[in-house]
Design a protein that fits this description.
Blueprint (H helix, E strand, L loop, with lengths): L8 H19 L1 H20 L1 H10 L8 E8 L2 H13 L3 E7 L7 E7 L3 H6 L3 E7 L7 H12 L6 H13 L4 H12 L12 H10 L1 H7 L8 E4 L4 H7 L23 E6 L3 E7 L5 E7 L3 E6 L5 H17 L9 H11 L7 H6 L5 E5 L14 H6 L3 E5 L7 H12 L13 H8 L6 H25 L2
Parallel strand pairs: 1-4
Antiparallel strand pairs: 1-5, 2-3, 3-4, 6-9, 7-8, 10-11
Helix pairs in contact: 1-2, 1-8, 4-7, 4-17, 7-8, 9-10, 12-13
The chain binds 2-oxoadipic acid and nickel (II) ion.
Cofactor: Fe(2+)
Enzyme class: oxidoreductase
Pfam families: HGLS (PF07063)
Length: 466
Amino acid sequence: MTQPAFVSSDEIRSMFSAAMSAMYRNEVPAYGTLMELVAKVNDETLAIDPKLKERLEETDSLDRISEERHGAIRLGTPAELAMMRRVFSVMGMYPVGYYDLSTAGVPVHSTAFRPVGDASLKRNPFRVFTSLLRLDLIADEKLRAEAEATLATRQIFTAGAVELTEKAEKQGGLTQTDAERFVSKALETFRWHDKARVSAEMYDRLHAAHRLIADVVSFKGPHINHLTPRTLDIDLVQARMPEYGIAPKAVVEGPPTRKCAILLRQTSFKALNEPVLFEGEGGEWTEGSHTARFGEIEQRGIALTPKGRALYDDLLNVSRKIVRPAADGSNAAEYEKALAEAFVPFPDTWEAIRAEGLGYFAYSLTEKGRKAKADASATLDSLIADGLVQFDPIVYEDFLPVSAAGIFQSNLGDDATQDFVASPNQQRFETDLGAKVLNEFDHYAGIEQASIDDCRRALSALQAAE
Ligand code: OOG
Ligand code: NI
C-alpha cells in the first residue's frame, strides 16, 4: 500500500498566512488600505532603483514582496502557549528568542514562532510574535484570581485543530485535504469575537489594572492583533499614511534611516476603537468598545553579532536619554535628529561592519573564485582581498524588545505607561512552552559558519581537480 503524500510544513504555513491575511483585511478594512499603500510604495521604489530590483529578483521572490512577514497574538495561560507551540510546529514555525517586556511596562514575556533555515524563510517568512500574559505581575490578588478563573474556562482551539495537530504529530505530516482542514480550523483561534466573556464591570477593572490584561482576559480567543507586510521604504509609507486616512504612530521604531540597514525598523497605524458587547446580569447585551487591533509595516536589515547588538543597544539608549519619543508625536522630529546623531559611531559600510565584527554575513565564491586555483587554507580576509570570496549581509529575522514595547505602548494608549519590576524569567517561559527557545545569535552564527565551510569545500574541490 502506498502512503498518501504529505504536504510540506512550508506549504501549510503559506496557506495559513494567506488565509489569515484575507480574514484580517476583511475584519479590519484599514489594514487593507495599508496593504495598498505598501504595494504602491514598493512598486515606486523598485521603479527608481533597478539595481535593488535585480538584487531582489536574485535573492527573493519579487512577486511576494508585499506579503505579510509577521503577526502577533497574546495568550492567557501556559496550557494555551504549549498547545500553540504544537499548532505552529505543524506549519514549520518554531520558537526563537525570548523577549522580556516587563521592563518596558508591559506585563508579558514572549517568543517568535518562525521558520528557521534559508529555504523555509524564502518559501514563506511568516512568523507570529507570541506573548504570554504574566498574571504574577498583577498586584491586586483578588483581580489576579478572577482573571485566572476566567481564563481557565476558555478553550481557544477548535476540536478539529487539536485533532489534526495530533494527527500530524503521529503521522509526521498532513495530506492536502487534512492540511486544508487544519488551516481553516486553526484560523478560528485568531478570529475576532465582539462578544466579551466578562461583564462590563469586570472589563473596567481589568482595564484599570492594565489595558493589555483586559485584552487578553475578556475575550474568547487571542484575536490576531496586527499583521505586518514588508516595505522597501518605511519612511515613505510612514509619511504617506495620513493621505490614506490612517493615523501613524508617532515615530518609526528601531535604528535610524541608514545606507546599510541594520536589524529591524517598524511602525504601525494606531489601534482602532471597536464596538464590543458585554453581557449584563439579566442576559441582555450592552454596547462598549475595545482598542486592540492595528496594522504594522517592517523593513529589515543585517543581523548583528552580540558585539554589534551591544553597540546598537548603547546608541539607542544614548538617543533616548536626549529625547524620549512622546506618544502624541509632538517631538518626533527632535527624536529622529537625536537618533541619527547618536548612531554616527555605527559604521555604515558593509566592509566596516564586517571588519569590526558587528554583523553576520553569508560568504560565497565570486565568478573568479569559481574558476581559481586558490589556496583553500588561505584566510578569509585574503580570499576576499583577492576577489575570490564575496559577502552579503544575513537578514535579521527576529524582533527587538524596545521596539516591541514601543509598538505595544502606542496601541495601548498614551496613559498606559506603568512600571513593573524587571523580572525576566526565561526558564519559567520555557517550562510553560514545553520546549527551549532557539538562541538567535547561535542561529545566525551557524548560517555564517556554514557559508564559510561551503566556500572552503568548493575551493578544495577546485584545488583537487587540478
Ligand atoms: C506585539 C508587539 C510586538 C513587534 O513587531 O515588535 C510586535 C503585540 O502588540 O502583541 O509585534
Ligand atoms: Ni509586530
